[in-house]
Amino acid sequence: MKMLRAFFVLIFLAQTITVRSIAAPEPPTDVSIIQLIATPEKFDGALVSLIGFMQIGREQDLVYLGEQDFNHGLIENALWFRLSEEIGKDSQKLNKNYVRIVGVFSARHEGPYGCPNGGLTTVKRFQIWSTPENPVGRIKDYPKPRN
Q1: Is 107 exposed, middle or buried (0-12, 13-18, 19+ CB in 10 A)?
Q2: Domains identified in the chain and CATH numbers
Q3: Can you tell me the mean pLDDT for 29-55?
Q4: Each residue of 66-75: pLDDT tens digit?
Q5: CB-based contacts of 24: which residues, under 8 Å, 6+ apart?
Q6: Beta strand 62-64 with 97-106: parallel, antiparallel or unpaired?
Q7: Which of 133, 111, 118, 134 lies closest to 56, judged by CA?
Q8: pLDDT at 110
Q9: β-strand pairing of 29-30 with 62-64
Q10: Which of 1, 21, 44, 70 is the 20 to 30 A CA-CA neighbour of 58?
């Protein structure tokens, strides 16, 4: 009788653990590109969410810290990412805009030639955060200051 009871308890616990792991996926860790560049080993293999300036180009799929870093070719302030089919479809909208991107971070250099930092091996989600012409918090039709 005790064996049968123990068996049912184990079955119940196994189902509970399985349901919890399926029902609640781990949320991504919000990080900055600076954190990933400074301490890549801390986030290696982790699901992360970051905001950066996206450049999509031939062998140059990078997320920069900011637009100025892109304009001045500061590849040391960038991370690479694997261009998925989904991102490829939206590349015209995403390219040269600030993007929130969620993906699995790899501390290893696997990206484009010259990018010394890690990157995102698997991109799960992405969305435009803001554009250089319309930054977050700026009202599009707001009057320009007078000189």
Answers
A1: middle
A2: 29-130 (2.40.50.140)
A3: 96
A4: 999 999 999 9
A5: none
A6: unpaired
A7: 111
A8: 72
A9: unpaired
A10: 44
| pLDDT(34) > 60 | yes
Q: 140: Cβ–Cβ under 8 A, 6 or more apart, which residues?
A: 134
Region 27-51 average pLDDT: 96
Token pair recorded at residue 14: 């196994």
> How far, in Å, CA of 96 to CA of 50, rounded?
16
CA torsion through residues 17, 21, 22, 23, sign: positive
The tokens 């450049």 sit on which residue? 55
Q: Which residues contact 60 (CB under 8 A, 6 or more apart)?
A: 112
Counting every residue written for the chain, the total comes to 147
**Is 40's pLDDT higher than 60?**
yes
In DSSP notation, 65-134 reads SSHHHHHTT-GGGEEEE---HHHHHTHHHHTTEEEEEEEEEE-S--SSTT--S-EEEEEEEEEEEEBTTB
Q: Which residues of 46-83 are buried (b: 16+ CB within 10 A; e: fewer)?
A: bbbebbbbbbbeeebbbbbbebebbeeeebebbbbbbe
